[in-house]
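FORM 7B - TANDEM STRUCTURE REPORT

SECTION 1: FIRST PROTEIN
SEQUENCE AND TOKENS:
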Amino acid sequence: MKKLAPCAIALLFLTTIPVAAAPEKEVVVFRSAYWHVAQSMHAITNKKNCSAIYKDSLKIQATRNNFLVSFRGRGGVASYVLRIDDNPPDAIKLASDMEKKISAVILESSFERIYRASRVRLGVTTALGHSMGEDIDLKGLKESVDFIRDQCD
């Protein structure tokens, strides 16, 4: 399994959020339930870049070994609590410097549990002090990640 450094993860996540016209065109190459896989070709290396996108919203994405939830434009991230399926919630975590910088929760350390799960709930305290939550149905995530692992660089 390929492992990406946190900076590479942040770069992948930031480059998939539309801020200006993207140099590479993304194409939907796979769909399963609530998820689809968007693929683009890297302009320099010609490698396939793929991300699984939840409900056609770029705020929730997965890669071959990471799960990210963006709070950009929603107050950023100060801390969060993760709950997988109906298990008790994990302990509260303070956002890392990288998570604060990109205004996203990076769940790489919990990815294998998420990959095997059917539901994720994420409670967030924003940098502005507000509480927010995401309730994510993972139906189709495993198939989408498997596609990425098989078909993308």
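SECTION 2: SECOND PROTEIN
SEQUENCE AND TOKENS:
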Amino acid sequence: MKKYVYESKRSYQSPEYEPVKLKEYIIFRDKTTQEKFMILDFVNNDQETINTIKFEIEQFTRDGKLIRKGDYIYENFEVKGYKHFVPYGKIAVSENCESIKMNLLSACYETKKWTSGKWEMVENNQVQYLNNSNNRMNGFVLRFTKYGISFPLSISIILFLLFFSISILISIYVLKYDIYRTLF
């Protein structure tokens, strides 16, 4: 961290209803290139493990004038429920940036997804939309896919070999017993 110079650390108040909240951000400067960057400190405000977030950052001048706006995606990570996390990577900041506004666009969990204030349940590679007023299923759409094998292949192979070996041993025992019975 000797390459970077600390400039400011600011607390941030995210909306209460969002499942992932930005708690604070730190702005620092690279000594060699003189570019400004920020890192973000989030908290997973849900009990499930989160693995992807998409959000929008708006950068403002001291006067409140919008300088830059951008969408960011952090994926392929796991943070357990109610834990703080700092995503990998840094975000470039405009030279005149004095404050930011963060808008959470989506958050993907193990069994559900939050998008623009609506929860979707993820089950069997389908999305089931939840009505926020009474939490009933409204139907499902085939557009969200979970990647990976739900039951590890190695365990399946081991179980197959185990049951196959046991069946061979049982058949050998039965054949051996029948052979001895016919001899006596």
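SECTION 3: OBSERVATIONS ON SECOND PROTEIN
The CA atoms of residues 50 and 109 lie 4 Å apart.
The longest strand covers residues 66-79.

SECTION 4: SIGNATURE
Preparer initials: ____
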